[in-house]
Specification:
single chain, about 400 residues, alpha+beta, Chitinase A, domain 3, 4-stranded antiparallel beta sheet, 15 helices
Length: about 400
């Protein structure tokens, strides 16, 4: 073996050793939870997932806490003999995606673009499903929701707002700048905007709502049409004042109150809302092509039935029709619906940058079918969740947790 060959072999061995060392470091134990390992790779993946959610604060600390609790949940499931099948996990992933107005394919693609592997998402969902089944088995018999309690929650959902308000908005999608920079911009606008005209200028420059071109002006809106967190914030303002930044799902929004007047019918109570959402298919020209297609769709339909007929070709995963108690509408969709009259539609930018269309079908005084059961299930979930929180704290207090 000549000197060059010997040098090459030595270099290859050194590089191989370095790569092996790096790989070992990536997957080596970072924490032990009752002898169950959490790796550095898992921590980095959970941090990326939290970033994808727009989470603020100490992301590493939150990631470690969540992974420790997931290990405790899975250990409790094993002890109770509870398992989650692959079909269960897939259903859970679909359900989780739907909460953010995603299809499962869209959410996986969204995560993949941000470095979150599909297995990480699957493990996150699996831990949640196992825990839900564990606390159900342990505590379901201890929870009872009465009809009177459901009635009381319905009263909250149908609060009468006898005012209409003239409101302007600035909507800042978190995905455009990231959670930290978006919040910083929202705080800066809150501190620097001192007049209606300044708000309008900022809306034209920064807002991504369809009201941006007219300075954020939403016009006169019944207070009861607005999402509850928005109406609560606006009700504390005087004309000319602004709300603090409000998290609206995948966006941070600012609202300015410009006027208040009595509603024509102060007795109107919006109890339920029916609406349709359409995820516009990908276009070769990207977002601009989606906007063109969305505008064409909106201009071609007059009713929700028309919308349904015109979007069958998009596939059932792209189109959703909902009838929900007003308080249960997702905040971002609620903010868009507030601008609409029945059978009106608009488009908005979803968190993944895609264009979605929303059409208001009806605002009703009557509850949609199954609404009472939905509220009963929500109350049941809240209460059994409280039992679960206490049990998880017990498990954590008894656990042996070691940082490696």
């Amino acid at each position: 073996m000549n000197k060059f060959t010997a040098f090459a072999c030595g270099l290859a061995i050194a590089l191989s050793s370095a790569v092996s060392t790096l790989a070992a470091g990536k997957y080596s134990p970072a924490y032990l939870v009752n002898e169950s390992v959490i790796t550095g790779y898992e921590i980095q993946q959970r941090i990326k997932m939290l970033q994808s959610f727009g989470t603020n604060g100490d992301l590493r600390g939150q990631a470690v806490d969540q992974l420790i609790e997931d290990r405790l949940r899975m250990q409790a499931a094993r002890k109770a003999g509870i398992r989650a099948s692959e079909d269960d996990v897939l259903s859970g992933m679909v359900e989780f995606a739907a909460r953010g107005d995603f299809s499962i394919e869209q959410l996986i693609e969204y995560f993949d673009e941000r470095g979150v592997h599909q297995n990480t998402f699957q493990d996150f969902v699996r831990a949640g499903i196992l825990w839900r089944n564990v606390i159900g088995a342990l505590f379901a018999s201890k929870v009872n929701v009465t009809d009177n309690e459901v009635d009381a929650r319905l009263d909250i959902s149908s609060v009468d707002f006898p005012k209409t308000v003239n409101v302007a908005e600035i909507s800042l999608p978190i995905d455009e700048r990231g959670a930290i920079l978006t919040r910083a911009l929202a705080d800066r606008l809150t501190q620097t905007i001192k007049s209606n005209s300044q708000f309008s200028v900022a809306a034209k420059k920064f807002s991504k709502s369809n009201t941006a071109a007219r300075g954020g002006d939403m016009g006169w809106v019944p207070m009861g049409n607005l999402p509850s967190q928005v109406s609560a914030a606006i009700s504390a303002l005087q004309p000319g004042q602004m709300t603090a930044p409000i998290l609206m799902g995948d966006a941070i929004a600012l609202y300015q109150l410009r006027g208040v007047r009595d509603a024509k019918s102060a007795g109107e109570q919006v109890i339920s809302v029916s609406y349709m959402t359409v995820a516009m298919p990908n276009a070769k020209s990207g977002q601009s092509g989606q906007i063109t297609a969305a505008t064409k769709l909106i201009n071609s339909v007059d009713t929700c039935l028309d919308m349904q007929a015109s979007t069958i070709k998009f596939g059932e995963n792209a189109v959703s029709k909902q009838a929900l108690p007003a308080a249960q509408i997702p905040p971002r969709i609620g903010a868009e619906i507030a601008k609409l009259d029945p059978n009106e539609a608009l488009y908005y930018v979803a968190e993944n940058g895609a264009i979605n269309v929303v059409m208001l079908c009806n605002r009703a005084k009557d509850l949609p079918e199954g609404a009472r059961e939905q509220i009963r299930n929500a109350l049941f979930s809240q209460r059994i969740g409280s039992f679960g929180d206490g049990y998880l704290q017990e498990l954590r207090g008894d656990a042996i947790i070691i940082a490696k």
